[in-house]
C-alpha cells in the first residue's frame, strides 16, 4: 500500500525536502517527523517520534531515507503522510478501506531549513511538541504547528514560560511540587506542567486551588483528558489555607484577584516557599482606602491615575514585605495573553537574607501618609502597623 509513496519519495531531490510528517497512526504513536540535519558535517536525517506525549529522537544515514520511512509507515500504519518540499507539499491520505489518495499544492519557497544539529532552540515550547493545551487554546493545529494568526500568543506564552524557566536552569533535583492559588480555567497551569514534566523531565506535582467547585471539576476533567497524572485541583479558599502538610517548592498566582494575592504571598512567606511567581490583578483595596489629603494629592486627583498609582503602591508594598522576610525580588514585565495592556509579575526567591529594620519604618511611614491598611500588612500585624490593625 505504501509502495507508491516510497517510489515518489525516491524520485525526489532530497535537498528539496524540508521535512516529512507522518500522523494519524493506528498505534500508540501520535506523530513522526523526519528532518534533514548536519551531524559533524555529515548530512543525516533525524526522526522524532511522539509517543504518549514524549519525544524520542534517532538519527539515520542520508541514503537510508526511503527504507526507514517505509519501516515507520508499516510499523505504525500512518494514515496521513505529508512530504514538505521547497515550493510545494505532497500529501497522501489512507482511507478506512485502505485506498491511497494523493494531493499536491504549492507552498511558499523556504530556503532557511536549519541543518545544524547544534543550533540552539529558538523557543522553549517548540513547534511539533505535543502540547495539548496549546491545541485546545487554538495556538497549535492538530499537527502541533503554530497557526499563523496565533503566532503572537505563541510568543507570549513562551515568554511566560521563559520567565519561570530562568529560575530553574541549574535545578538539580528530580522532584518539584507547585501550588497554584486561584487557578481558574487557565491553561497556563497545564503548560507549566508540560514544561517541567516533558521538557525538564522532572517529576512535577501541581495542586491548584480555586473557590468555584465547577471550575475545579472542569480542570480535573482536563487533566484526565491530557493524562497529566500528577496535577489535581481542589476547592479551597486561599484566605483559609495557612499551612501545607507536604513540602512545597513553588507557588504561582496568575491574576489572583485583589487581596487573594496577599493571602497567597502570606502563605508562601509563612511556609518559606523558595520560589514565588505572582501576577497580581484587580488591586481595588488600596484604591478604596487611599487618602488624597496630603502633599501628594495631585497624583490622586484623577480617577485613572489614582487607580494606577494604587495598583503600583499595592505591589511595591508586597515586594517590600517579601524582601523584609528574606526574599530576593524582581518585577518582570510581560504581555497578558488576552491582548490587554502589559502586566507585571513579581518573581521572588527565598534567600534568608537579613534586611535592615529601616524597611519596616519606610512601610509604616507610607501607610500612615496615605491612610491605608493593605491586607498583606494586616496579616503580619504590629510588625508594620503601629496600632496593630
TrEMBL record:
This is Methyltransferase domain-containing protein. One of its GO terms (cellular component) is cytoplasm. It comes from the Bacteria. Residues 152-289 form the Methyltransferase domain. SUPFAM superfamilies: S-adenosyl-L-methionine-dependent methyltransferases. Transmembrane segments: none annotated. It comes from Clostridium thermosuccinogenes.
